[in-house]
Every structure is written in structure tokens, then in C-alpha cells.
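Lab notebook: predicted structure, single chain.

Context: the supervisor wants predicted structures on file for every construct in the current expression panel, including those that have not yet been purified. This is the next one on the list. No modifications to the sequence; it matches the entry in the shared construct table.
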Amino acid sequence: MFWPVYLAFKQLFPAGRISFFTLVSITGVGLGVALLLVSTSVMGGFGYQVERMIIDTQGEIQIHARVLLAPAQMEEIEKVLAVSPQVAAFAPYAAGMIMLQYHNQPAFSMVQGFDWKKMQKVIPIERYLTVGSLADMDNDSVILSSILASSLGVKVGDAISIYSPLILDRLKKNEVLLPREVRVAAIFHIGHQQLDSSTVICSLRLMQDLYGLQQSLHGCNVRLRPGVNYDAVADALNRALPPYASALTWFEASAEFQSVLKFERNMIFFLLTFIVVVAAFSVMSSLLVTVVRKTREIGLLSAMGGKARNVALCFCMQSLIIGCIGTVAGLIGGFLLLQFRDDIVRLIAQATMGEATFVKYYQFSSLPAYTAGKDVFIITVFSIVASAFSGLLPAWRAARLNPVEALRSEWHSASPARGRAEQNLPQWRYQTVRANECGLRPGLRREREHSRPIRFWEKYTAEPAGWSWPAGCWWVVVGERTGAPA
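Prediction complete. Output recorded below exactly as produced.
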């Protein structure tokens, strides 16, 4: 093993155990990585859940028309969709705004009318029904979203009144059009606040009557085959569709909401990256302390022939090792938190306001989670790179240490009185020589009868890995008088 790497491991794990500074540094990096992973996964889960909700209620692609589509124009669009191999099913629709009234309680909502047979192949609405059944649907019945039905106080089987913009058009012509009385056949709950609070689904015939469309339509919802690229299919359809129609993906149709969700996710990720940055500064601080504590050892390494870049590499390897171990520990901790996230939310709900109240006000009792491989890769790379860069300053400080000054500072710091007494000693020149070259014996200290007076020395019975010195050789640091007393 290359000796800087060996020394890096020995410094972090002396005698086979983990040091306190190493444990604190690894814990800081691990906590930052775990929080980043949990936050991105939860936000990704909300985004993925919203995506599935929108696709299940609108399809992957919507065909919008700049004008009302006559039956002949709709047939032309359906021919284009029928020949596309990526299209699994499609259903024409008409949509608009209406006002509902029940016992003098009004509510405004969006209404969508579908051909029931075609709609069931595109939109699996039965999956979201909480009360009622599609078998009870006809041209005089509707399906209400859960929050809308709750705000009106409506139950399945109740009759409600629908006011459409066609009433205003008839009033301008001095005609009176009475509101349409319909029956509530079912109630659905999707889990999306916007869809659950203001959505009405009815038959295509009823919607055309409410708006006076005759046989005209507004567009078409398209369901694609699994694994198909939405954007590529939309581009292909736009090239094949007539000029009065255009294809939009589900993301483009709800671009404003998606941009807000993406912005929130990116801001949370940006803010939580500061935790990893703070952990990197903690690693830097601990390594700087190590440089100060190991000044004598660094000086000896340089005096024994160790190059400055190898000394610097030793500290860079320490920060890299801390970053790698902390990242792995953080990923394991983050995935464990995600595994038990529902239990954690339940405990928080029970300890604060009660689970029922928590669900009532926050609209969820479990957290969705979706972990993308790209997010894990970004978190891993960012954490390791930040930790590695935190070792540059300590490495630079260690590489700049003068071995003579390092050893002299250690000698003075060992005994302040002795340091003051030696201020009047002659100047010395230090060098590393083999013991047999200066006649030294192991255990010899400050004997003046030798040709080279010894100020202090250290012995090494084992040579560092990768060095080409003879095995078992004694190496000493000697001082030689070079001038008058300072």
C-alpha cells in the first residue's frame, strides 16, 4: 500500500479503532447525506404521485383545438391517432365551467364530458370512486369530486342544479333557459387538492347540451403505451395533426403547477446542501487540529525524505475516506428513514394533535416517496467532492511545514524552560543520516565525544511502505554546529 494512504488509515483508525474526531466528522457527513436523500425522495414522491393522478384523469397527452371541433374534424384527428403505434386509446371530450346549486348553496367547478365506453380505456375513474358506481351513470347524472361534494353537502342520489354559460347567452336573446336538474351518481377522490375540490364528470351528451355544442367537441385525451417517451410522441403527433389541433403532454398542460413543484424541490435541495457544506467545514477543522497535534510527526516525515506532495496527499486521503464512509452511512440511514417514514409520521401525529386531526388538516397520514437514481448519484458525488475539497487547506498547511522548524517547535513546546535556556546555544544545521555514519548507538542522548554533537534524535526500526531504504536501518536526526550563539 502506498505509504500516504497507509498513514491516512492509521491516523483515522489508530490501533484498529475509530478516533473521536473521525467519528464526529463521519457523523456530520452522514447526517447531511441522509437529510438530502429523504427530502429529495419525499418531494420526488409528491411529484410522482401528482404525475400519476394527472395522467389517470387526463391521459399522457391531450389534443387541444383552437376552434370547436366539428364531427368531420374529430374524425380526421382520430385517424391520425389510430395509425400511431404508441397510442393505446383515446377519448373525445368537451369541457367548461359551470355553477352547481344544492339547497341554495352554490359552487363553481370545472366539468368534463366523456363518451363512457371510450373514457374507461383512457381514464381509470373506477379506481378512485369512493361512493357509487359507473353502472348508475346516464345522461342525467354526474360524478362529483369529494371536496366539492362535501362543500355542497351532497350525497349519492341527491339532485342538484347546474347553471351553464348558455343561460346567459339565451337571456341576451330574451329567452329563458332553466337550470338542468341532474342526479349525483358517484363521488370520487383522487388525492390532488385542485382536482378534488372543483371537478365534475358527466356524459358527453350532457356536456354538449349544457353548452349548446350540438355535435362539436373541444379535444381528445390520449393514453400511450407503457414505456413510451411522452415528448417524442407529442412531437410526432404535432407533425401529423391538422393545423387547427395540437398535442400537449400532461406536463405542458399543467406547466404552471409543475414549475412551482419543481422550484420548491430545488430550493429544499439547495438549502439542505448547506448541511453537507457545514459537515465539510467540520472535517476541515478536525484535520487542521490534526496538523497542529502531529507537527512533530510531519516534520519527521519530511526529514526522512518524504516529499511535500506525499504529506499533502496523506491529509487529502483522510478527507476523502471520511467523505466516502460518511456518504455510505448517510445513504443507509436515509433509506432506513424512508422505509419507516409512515411510522415516524404516525408517531409525530399521535404526539402532537392526534392522527385523525392530522389527517383532517394536512390531508395525508403517509408520506409518498420516490427515489430517482439521478438524485442518489448527485447526492453521492456532491458529498464526496465536498469532503475531499475540505482536506485541501489542511494538506497545504502540512506540506508547507519546514521539518527543522517543526522539530524545533516540538522541542521547545516540550519544555518551555529548556527552550528559553537554549536561546543562547550555537546555531545548528539538521540533517538525516544513518546511525553508523555518525557513530550513534541506540539509546544514546546528547553525548559530546562524537564527531557530530547530537541535539536530539529519533529512531525508526521499521521503514515506511514504499521507501527504498535498507530494512532494519536506524535513522537519526542530528544537529551540527554552524555558527556563534544567537
